[in-house]
Amino acid sequence: HAKQSGRGRYSYFTAVMSERADQRLRLESELRTAIAEGQLFLVYQPKMLLPERQLSGMEALVRWRHPDGHVVTPLDFIPVAEETGLVVAIDDWVLREACRQNRAWIDAGLPALPVAVNLSLARFDPARIVSGLAQALGSSGMPAELLEVELTESQMLTQGDRADQLIRGIRALGVRVSVDDFGTGYSSLGYLTRHRFDAIKIDRSFVHGLPGDAGQKAVVEAIVAMGRALEYRVIGEGVETEAQAQALLMLGCNEMQGYLLGRPLPASAMEQLLRDAVA
Ligand code: C2E
Ligand code: MG
Ligand code: MG
Ligand code: MG
């Protein structure tokens, strides 16, 4: 009897698992098509200076317009793309498209603000990324100092020496590098002094509890103090309320990003925001 129910459970799990494997394979092949057939597009999330409430830059975030009509979030496909290595092609496309778009905005007389792209370190070859960056800058004619690369703290830490090599290569191009989702890694802080970063982005999990949560407030305060001492800009992510923005300002944060300022915008809406910034 026990054996039977055991076997029942076993076949149930294999069924679920092979369904998952099928889904994964399907997703992988759909993603390949998506890259090849131009189903990816970018949205842009503004960053703002905290005291002035002035547009200071933007982050390009990838989206996938699935043939079934849905827009798929990167949270649902970047992990599979990282496992399969497809993420390299996705990040490369994002980089080129962000440079092309930013250059087009500059050529149209709009304010030249830095654009940030996210780069996965799950599968990477430092030399290839650096030459990809140089190529993207060269072919778009975008000034290097207007490009910013966001690397997550946790991926930098797991990649060790290879990440160090990559960061040095990126910095040598004059491209900015910032630390994304700061505070969620392994709190090994040596890398912060080994490189000249441009900014530290405080993970939104620490911003969430502001201003009420004393613990989160203390963590944000400590990150700001450290960032300041190292002369890095400190950006609060995931700011959804005016109270959170006020708290970040009080704690000395330089910039913010979050739904309070707006959801990530299609290129046309981001362009309007840039026009409004000039007016
Ligand atoms: P991230 O780089 O930390 O980007 C911030 C994410 O938080 C974005 O989600 C953004 O929409 C979301 N967000 C912004 N403000 C708020 C807020 O006020 N509240 C809340 N709850 N969320 C907010 P998104 O666009 O879904 O991207 C998720 C993650 O996917 C990104 O996190 C990044 O790690 C990754 N990603 C996005 N685009 C790319 C890409 O082109 N390449 C790679 N490798 N990863 C990417
Ligand atoms: Mg980011
Ligand atoms: Mg982030
Ligand atoms: Mg994140």
UniProtKB/TrEMBL annotation:
Domain of life: Bacteria
Residue stretches making up the EAL domain: 24-278
Signal peptide: none
Protein's name according to its UniProt entry: EAL domain-containing protein
Organism name: Cognatilysobacter lacus
Source lineage: Bacteria, Pseudomonadati, Pseudomonadota, Gammaproteobacteria, Lysobacterales
Full-protein interval shown: 812 to 1090 of 1090
